[in-house]
Amino acid sequence: ILNVEQSPQSLHVQEGDSTNFTCSFPSSNFYALHWYRWETAKSPEALFVMTLNGDEKKKGRISATLNTKEGYSYLYIKGSQPEDSATYLCAFYTDKLIFGTGTRLQVFP
Amino acid sequence: NAGVTQTPKFQVLKTGQSMTLQCAQDMNHEYMSWYRQDPGMGLRLIHYSVGAGITDQGEVPNGYNVSRSTTEDFPLRLLSAAPSQTSVYFCASSYSILPYNSPLHFGNGTRLTVT
Q1: Torsion angle of alpha carbons B48, A2, A46, A72, nearest 10°?
Q2: Distance of residue B25 Cα from the nearest chain A Cα, in angstroms
Q3: Closest to B45 (Cβ–Cβ): which among A31, A97, A101?
Q4: Are A40 and A86 in contact (CB under 8 A)?
């Protein structure tokens, strides 16, 4: 059974704070790592798909890095805003796409 | 484009009843999948399909059947509903045959309660 772990489980930050989360996955048989943003009462939406060791992706204030040799990815949010409040999911692809349980971020004004 | 459309949005079943959750996509995606979401468990893969006529099991396939007769449709059948199948179900599709380098597009979910 593949284990995709995300930490922390939840995070509360003030508006303007920068924050980061971790996704850990098996370092063998790596094909891709996905990040999704999931707002309450909506469906998950894709942020990044990362396939190469050392990949860095950026979308506005959100960025992600990937280390396939040690089996982790970081998601960074710079200057958090209340609209960034959501659950952030990572998913590891080997022969199936397996999701972690997510990091729930709440940004207070 | 409608994207990924799931019906119904809500459903209540009695134990032992059967039903089909519908999923359709209009993006000509080859890959389609079903996930269930339970508190503290994240999204767990039930079944997936890499094209018409091809399906395979995910992490939690027991109690569910799927078929893929067309590229557009991927229904999920509950054969004999059990309270343990109370969950929120998401259908998701991807442009690539395997979601290796293209992201999943999710439907809006179906909330199922089995009493």
Answers
A1: -160
A2: 15
A3: A97
A4: yes
Query: A49, B101: Cβ pair inside 8 Å?
Result: yes
Q: Is B107 exposed, middle or buried (0-12, 13-18, 19+ CB in 10 A)?
A: buried
Q: A1 pLDDT band (50/70/90 cuts)?
A: low
Residue from B40, B35, B11, B39 nearest B114 by CA: B11
The Cα of A89 is separated from the nearest Cα of chain B by a number of Å equal to 9
Q: What is the pLDDT of residue B41?
A: 85
Where are the extended beta strands (E) located within chain B?
Answer: 4-7, 10-13, 19-25, 31-38, 42-51, 54-57, 64-66, 76-78, 87-94, 105-106, 110-114
- pLDDT tens for A10-28 read 999 999 999 999 999 998 8
How many residues belong to chain A?
109
Residues A101/A61, Cβ–Cβ less than 8 Å: no
CA angle A51, A54, A59 (to 5 degrees): 75
pLDDT at B1 over 80: no
With vertex at residue B83, the alpha carbon angle to CA A86 and CA B111, rounded to the nearest 5 degrees, is 35
Residues 6+ apart with CB under 8 A from A52: A66, A68
Residue B39 binned pLDDT confidence (cut-offs 50, 70, 90): confident
